[in-house]
Amino acid sequence: MGPDPSFISTSANNGEREHFISSITTNVTSFFREKHHFDLLTEKILADSNDVKRSLNIWSAGCSSGQEPYSIAMCLLQALPDLAARTQILATDIDVAILRKAEVGIYTRKELMALPPAFLGRSFFSSIRNAQSDEMQLQHKIRNMVKFQNLNLNSSWAMPVQFDIIFCRNVAIYFSQTTQERLWRRFVTALRPGGWLLIGHAERIPPELHSILRPNGMTAYQKIS
């Protein structure tokens, strides 16, 4: 008799389910990955948002071990600190184990190799978890800008706010075309008019959705107001 697939679906086996999800999840990420998006964020999107008096809401969907949302936070703090003070960054992932790593904000120097030196000195300090290690930890002011939450993008979800910017990069590529299109349409609902959706280098919004998500840069799309 083969294994019972319902074993990991019961509440009594949450630990097994988390371990299973973690074992099959691809968690490839790095700081400032696909740098053109962060250039666009700093030079255009945030600059255009600076006059907005309300809070700015950003969602990192499929955040993995936290490098993406923390890169967003570092950009904000460097370019527009006043706007950073009223920005809320939500970071979600299906993998509970990787979210625990992200929340701690501790990375090895190898993981920080792609980080510009100016950000490294300003944003990290040596981790005291192990004096002999090469680990660095993010400063509290950066970690406090990000709220991590467990979320399956293919489950039912509804956000309490509409977002100004959604990063969902190199996630949908693992979904079928039908599932991708359904996700793009759900993101439209989750975006404010004029809001931005940034996706991975191998992903595209299909032409039939360009009437609501207009291409505006390399793998960048803006919701029609």
Features:
10 strands, 225 residues, 8 helices, alpha/beta, seven-stranded mixed sheet, three-stranded antiparallel sheet, disordered N terminus
Write up this protein.
The protein has helices at 14-24, 35-49, 67-79, 81-84, 96-104, 117-123, 140-143, 177-190, and strands spanning 56-61, 87-93, 106-108, 124-126, 135-138, 146-150, 163-168, 191-199, 213-215, 220-223. The protein has 225 residues and is α/β, with parallel strands linked by helices. The strands form two sheets. It has a seven-stranded mixed beta sheet with strand order 6-2-1-7-8-10-9. The longest helix is centred in the first third of the chain and has 15 residues, at 35-49. The termini are far apart.
* Structural class assignment: alpha/beta
Question: Regions with pLDDT < 50 over 5+ consecutive residues?
Answer: 1-9, 15-25
Main β-sheet description: 7 strands, mixed
Strand order of the largest sheet: 6-2-1-7-8-10-9
Strand content: 15-25%
Mean pLDDT: 88
Query: What does the oligomeric state look like here?
Result: single chain
